Amino acid sequence: MEYFAHSQKNDRPAQTYERHVQNVTSHAKKCARSISHYCQLDGEILTALAGTVAFWHDLGKLDKENQIVLSGEKKAKILPKKHWDAGAALLNEYNEFAAIAVYSHHTGYPDFSTESIREERAFRVEEQVIETDKLLNEFITIHKNLLGAEERSVRDLFPKSDRSIFLRLLLSCVVDADHTDTATHYGNEPIIDNVIELRPAERLEKLNEYIASLSTKNAKKDERTVLRNEMYTQCRDADVSDTVQISSCGSPVGSGKTTAVIAHLLTQAQKRGLRRIFVILPFTNIIQQSVKVYRDTLVLPGENPEDVVAELHHRADFESIETRRFTSLWRAPIIVTTAASFFETLASNSPAVLRRLHELPGSAIFVDEAHAALPVKLLPIVWKWMNIYAHEWGCYWVLASGSLCRFWQIPEIAQNTNNKNVPEIVDEDLQQRLGAYENNRINYRNDLSPKTTDSVIEWVKKFPGPRLVIVNTVNNAAVIASAYKERFGREYVEHLSTALTPLDRDKTLTCVKNRLLNPNDKDWVLIATSCVEAGVDLSFRTGFRELGSLASLLQVSGRVNREGKYQDAETWTFTLADSAEINRNHSIKDAAEVLRNYFTSNTVISQELCTEAISDEIKLQGVSKIYKELLETERNLEFSTVESKFKVIEADTCLAVVDFNIAEHIRNSKIDWRELQKNSIQIQNYNLQKFKIPEILTGIFQWNLEYNDFLGYMAGILFRNNPKNYIT
Length: 728
Hints:
About 50% of the residues are buried. It contains 30 helices and 18 strands. The longest helix is centred in the first third of the chain and has 23 residues, at about 165-185. It starts with a strand and ends in a 7-residue tail after the last helix. It has a six-stranded parallel sheet, sandwiched between helices. A six-stranded parallel sheet has the order 9-14-13-10-12-11, sandwiched between helices. A four-stranded mixed sheet has the order 16-15-18-17. It is α/β, with parallel strands linked by helices and about 725 residues long. Helix 22 (about 550-555) links the parallel strand 13 (about 540-545) and strand 14 (about 570-575). The chain folds into four domains: about 5-185; about 200-405, 3-Layer(aba) Sandwich (Rossmann fold), CATH 3.40.50.300; about 440-605, 3-Layer(aba) Sandwich (Rossmann fold), CATH 3.40.50; about 655-720, no CATH class.
């Protein structure tokens, strides 16, 4: 009799059980072996357990009721029996970790405390336990007849490293193997044989040539150019001990961190034998500019830039077989992404998300504007993870900050870690000279009397341009941009936020850059969200920032008077009056209160204030609950709770595409995850439900309201909320 793992679909034949298990086992062990080279403690254990979990993961598919569906004899959307129960039952007899991974390979890791209440039925499918136990020997016999005996016993093989991270990496190896083989069988994912290598020495040589060419073009060596060149050389040539796994780079905005830190990481990758580089930008930052720089300077002859430098705008993770092809993976040698996408992967319990995690060990990670990359309440657990990946899984981190914030020295954040010594890769003398240049560049002003939308645009218009206005929400940016357009005309305003697709954001950013290069084009404003606060080389005459965190204010100032041409350049902090059309970002309430207190007490705003600002925010929030809760749940293996509470961005969002042709291509499997990301937006589920937005495939929606390249999807929301005022 022939047994199947996947049924026939469209023009693809059914896949045999034997072939699927063989492929998944081979791939899972390959993933684990690629990690073991960097693992300080458990490389062999991880490889053995990954092979065992993969070998038995689909055992329950051998159930006769499941085979009737898998063979095509009977049609059903889901299998009648939950197939992960059988493998969990078998492995629970001699390795709890392997059993838990089998149990979780479709549903994700649960909270262990919840499972422990079920005692002997923990990590089992409650309603199937009796029947599974009765049929288990039959399943095992069939399995062994098809595939032979398991290569080795994993009885009593348990990790010495941090258990929560070990378990996530174990599941990552198995799930990636499982999803990859399934997608390949159905023709939804290409077979990947040739992995592009980092080749750090060659890429560093190309980057050196690029930096040298800039110096040749700029014959006139002004102070800023001299400082940037010195910054690059110091970062690249920094003498970092092999025992140091986390370094810092405290240099202001405009000092050339984008290339200088990458040069440092390439040097360290060559020295340490690392396989991948991650560049992490704050929140939902615009990452296209950084991506372009890296593709222009690091891609070698004959390589496809998109394959070398991956551009991951937002988390795209899908569990169902029909949508797995859209999951964004970490297979490129250089990956540029946001803090939300990166750190929420580290916190996840979901198989679709964890699928890519095994690519992280043995990587160099550049966390740009590290102090602003995450909400303060998440820093303690993230600092713990950074240290574990550094010291147990061969990662090397650089925490770069234009605001010189050493959050790792704050007791509430550094608890449960002994690493308070994070050496600088830039010497103190250069830091001081960079800081002196920075402090003379911007004057900080504030007007905290609440302003209506109309009064804001009239007030901003009075200042010298070009002007940059950054507000706290996508809604507020759209409301003010729309009002500005109606009051002064479209040619006087640009708008940039995540309401636009990455493609349209890129077009707008190009337009903004071109306008900034035109000395005769001054009377206009860019109204944006925090997505342009870091990683974007823009320089405006005057800046405005809705009251938020000190870190955000300093970041905005990095987009004003970058060249230091003006002695009187200003960045203003303001507040918006309550109204029906304005909403609030409640997640930054405490940080905003800290900054308000600095203004009212006439505290001098400077880069050096950042560490104090985080400490003050911690005092406002209260240490005992917020800062211990996540650490305790992680320590207790409460995987589901950690994922639900670890939110870089509080909003619950889903992907939606705005182009009807793209939607049709998705239905017909004609695009991949890259095209999906370029043409999609992330929209709150609240709005999807409110406006009854249709779902194309599971988790992917078709935005069918108004959308344009000025306001993005907010054109549809503003029009629906108030059609008289917002016809766009």
